[in-house]
Amino acid sequence: MVFLLLAMVNMSLPAASQEQVAETIYVQEVDMNGTLLSGVQVIGQDAAGYSFEGVTDSNGTAIVSGLPGAWQFLFVKDGYEPLKFSSNVTETGEGVVYLQKSSQSSDNTTLAEQNSQENQTSAKSMSMQEWYNLGISMQKEGKYAEAAEAFDEVVRIDPKFAMAWYNKYVALRELGRNSEADAALSEAKNLSYDASL
């Protein structure tokens, strides 16, 4: 997978500032001559572990904001390989990423539809991204037990996915499973938290 993130600073903030910074992200297909892609989910966490999300508009642009420092990004669009990476975002700026077409065909079903067809499809065949999206969806609906199970699958597939550990922490905390929640938060911090921020 090839990607490039270019920071073009629009505004400088002091390093110790707790003010939010914003990143305008342009998503293109394959390379810098590729088509701008609309409908790309941009999911991530800022330096403090707070989640952000957005979707690219018709110009292939999404704007996300958070606290400065080490951010984690995940870009997802049906028919394209998911792109996951970390970047040090310390100032408001812009970036460009490129998505590669998926080698597998897409069936245009939503995760909710996939979940309702669970008896027809083996749960093991779901990708990490599908599990993550399912977890986010369940969490938004207040179904924290299902969300925690989905995030369990994500970290089973990729134990270094800090955003999944953090969201697992949120779900477990809502369920009152505090010791498990604390362990998940600790793991998220071990993977992405920078004490110097």
Quick rundown:
This protein has 197 residues and is α+β, with helices and mostly antiparallel strands. 31% of the residues lie in helices and 24% in strands.
How would you describe the overall organization of this protein?
This protein is globular. The protein has helices spanning 111-116, 128-140, 144-157, 162-174, 178-192, and strands at 21-29, 41-45, 51-55, 61-66, 69-76, 83-89, 93-99. Strand 5 (69-76) and strand 6 form a beta hairpin. The longest helix is centred in the C-terminal third of the chain and has 15 residues, at 178-192. The chain has 197 residues and is an alpha+beta fold. The two termini are 30 Å apart. The strands form 2 sheets. The protein has a 4-stranded antiparallel β-sheet with strand order 3-2-5-6, covered by helices on one side. The protein has a 3-stranded mixed β-sheet with strand order 4-1-7, with no helix packed on it. It has 2 domains: 21-99, Sandwich (Immunoglobulin-like); 111-192, Alpha Horseshoe (Serine Threonine Protein Phosphatase 5, Tetratricopeptide repeat).
